[in-house]
Specification:
The protein is of the alpha/beta class and 196 residues long. Helix content is 36%, strand content 21%. The chain has a single domain, classed as Peptidyl-tRNA hydrolase (Rossmann fold), CATH 3.40.50. The protein is built from six helices and seven strands; from the N terminus they run βαβββαββαβααα. Strand 3 and strand 4 form a beta hairpin. Helix 2 runs parallel beside helix 3 and helix 5 packs antiparallel against helix 6.
Length: 196
């Protein structure tokens, strides 16, 4: 199955731009930049979008402009319009259970309490199976601190580690699109968290 839509989950506006909850959007923006594309706002898709050609494959990018718990609205709108099946979608998001500097690619699964994933699963319906790029942000250590933590800006050291994981993820994305998920996972998961 080919990936046809890559979504970076985010909250909208300048206030949230540098927060941990927006690392999915950081990844999609970097992917666009690497392919000399810029994301443009499309109101009918409730987000910023771009179109890439990766080898012979055509891929659409999306960063929703809705709030995180409504991100599924943008994903469903674009998937419906372009007839993209859930299994052809990659959702990039922040992951509390992975340390900064690491990213993991997986297929299927629940929402793990992530409001963006929760809304996407709800709006795509019928227990949809899609790919997830889980970008590690670490955990504050106390579940009561999670909301504040994800809406905060990471330290400079953490930013470097997260950026390193995003760099590696961007490189592995072309393998995922042009070759297969197993090879992309192997390449991504053997990565060490060096600060570059």
């Amino acid at each position: 199955m080919t990936i046809k839509l890559i979504v970076g989950l985010a909250n909208p506006g300048q206030k949230y731009l540098t927060t941990r909850h927006n690392v999915g959007a950081w990844y999609v923006n970097q992917l666009a930049n690497k392919n000399n594309q810029s994301l443009k706002e499309k109101r009918n898709f409730f987000g910023y979008t771009a179109h890439l050609n990766v080898g012979e494959k055509s891929v659409r990018l999306l960063v929703p402009t809705t709030f995180m718990n409504d991100n599924g609205k943008a994903v469903a709108a674009m998937a419906t319009f372009y007839h993209i099946a859930p299994e052809e979608i990659l959702i990039a998001h922040d992951e509390l259970n992975i340390s900064p500097g690491y990213a993991r690619l997986k297929y299927q699964g629940g929402h793990g309490g992530h409001n963006g994933l929760k809304d996407i699963i709800h709006r795509l319906g019928n227990n949809p199976n899609f790919y997830r790029l889980r970008i590690g942000i670490g955990h504050p250590g106390d579940k009561n601190e999670v909301v504040r933590f994800v809406l905060d800006t990471p330290s400079v050291t953490e930013q470097q580690l997260i950026q390193n994981a995003i760099n590696k993820s961007v490189c592995c994305t072309s393998i995922l699109i042009q070759e297969n998920a197993v090879k992309a996972m192997h390449q991504l998961h053997t990565h060490t968290a060096d600060i570059i």
